[in-house]
Design brief:
The protein is an all-alpha fold. It contains two helices and no strands. The radius of gyration is 16 Å and the shape is rod-shaped. The chain starts with a helix and ends in a 7-residue tail after the last helix. It comes from Oscillatoriales cyanobacterium SpSt-402. InterPro entries: DUF403 (IPR007296). This is Alpha-E domain-containing protein.
Length: 42
């Protein structure tokens, strides 16, 4: 997804950064789950 500076200012910088941080947290969680989380051995 792409966004322009004008769109960021229309929605508000704080709101944009809040959403960006949430998406980055989701990415970090998925990376952790995929590569670092220990899975129980059945």
């Amino acid at each position: 997804d792409y966004i322009t500076i004008d769109e960021i200012f229309e929605m508000g910088l704080h709101e944009y950064l809040d959403g960006l941080q949430s998406r980055m947290n989701e990415v970090g969680a998925k990376i952790f789950e995929t590569f670092f989380a220990l899975q129980p051995v059945a």
